[in-house]
Specification:
mainly beta, 6-stranded mixed β-sheet, single chain, 3-stranded antiparallel β-sheet, globular, 147 residues, 12 strands
C-alpha cells in the first residue's frame, strides 16, 4: 500500500474504521429492493476492492450478506471471499474523487426521476458474476449476486 491512493471510512459512531488502497475493481449503483431497504435511499452506491487492499478495525454484526456496526447501525463494508464492498457514503472524504459508477443493477426498480448514469452499463438484474469489467446485456436473466 505504498504510493497508491488510500481512502478511509467509518461507521457513524467511528467504532468501525477501514481503509482501502489503490483503485477499486468496479464501482456501481444498485436499485434492488434489498439495497434500497438497507440504505434507506432510492439506490445504493458502492465500490469493490480486492480483499488484499482492504484493512479494518472494530466489531461488526451481520444480517445475511450485510454488515453493520452493532452500536450505531451504520452499514459497513461487506467482506467476501476475495473482495470488500464499500458503500461510497461511508468514506470520510466527500465528494469522492475517481469513484464513478460503471454500471447500474436492477434498473427496472430505478426511480422515474433518476436518469441512467451516462456511459454506465445497465443490467435488468444482477451483474454477471464472471465479468469483472461489469459488462453484460440489458434484459438478461437474473444471475448470482456479485456487486
Amino acid at each position: 500500500m505504498s504510493n497508491q491512493i488510500k481512502r478511509s471510512g467509518s461507521c457513524l459512531c467511528g467504532g468501525v474504521r477501514f481503509e482501502v488502497a489503490g483503485e477499486p475493481l468496479r464501482v456501481g449503483l444498485c436499485h434492488c429492493k434489498d439495497c434500497r431497504k438497507t440504505s434507506g435511499s432510492a439506490f445504493h452506491a458502492y465500490a469493490v476492492w480486492p480483499l488484499h487492499a482492504f484493512e479494518t478495525t472494530g466489531i461488526t454484526s451481520s444480517y445475511g450478506a450485510r454488515s453493520f456496526c452493532p452500536t450505531c447501525g451504520s452499514r459497513v463494508p461487506y467482506i467476501g471471499e476475495d473482495e470488500a464492498e464499500v458503500t461510497i457514503g461511508s468514506l470520510d472524504i466527500a465528494p469522492t474523487e475517481g469513484l464513478v459508477p460503471g454500471y447500474e443493477l436492477w434498473i427496472g426498480r430505478r426511480e422515474s426521476w433518476l436518469q441512467a448514469m451516462p456511459g454506465a452499463r445497465q443490467f435488468e438484474h444482477d451483474r454477471i458474476a464472471d465479468d469483472s469489467a461489469a459488462g453484460g446485456e440489458v434484459g438478461g436473466e437474473p444471475q448470482q449476486r456479485s456487486a
